[in-house]
Fold this protein.
Amino acid sequence: MERKQHTVIDSPYGRLTLVATDGALSGLYMTEQRHRPAEEAFGERDERPFGAAIDQLEAYFQGELKEFDLPLALHGTPFQRSVWQQLRQIPYGETRTYGELAAALGNPAASRAVGLANGKNPVGVIVPCHRVIGASGSLTGYGGGLERKQRLLDFERGAALF
């Protein structure tokens, strides 16, 4: 049986709930996030499994960390997991379109499916779904809200330091 634990931390984007499954990070949820599981799904509150995640998030928000290196336990379909792996390949401060991600997965016609998988990403910020934009360069859906998406992109481009 899986053991789930969680903690809540403050960030420049509001409170973040971190969830671990058997000691590996399996969720990072913002307040009022779309597809946020019910609180009872997060397990007991315990900070112990989150030391490295908290340290890396703090370094990221300070502008000192560009790439996360954490053990993740991402639960999703094989297609979702392949999209989430592609998200991790998008460099800090850069963006990709849904179509570019679909093409990288070998299926250029799958941009809608990529968008749906992107929206189900359980570990926002660390798996940088905020770096995906529409074909026209416009901001499109983000589970944490478009304002947060814009703020994260601006932050990574050096336009908004905290």
Summary: The chain has a mean pLDDT of 91. The beta strands are 4-9, 16-21, 24-30, 44-45, 96-97, 132-133. The longest strand covers residues 24-30.
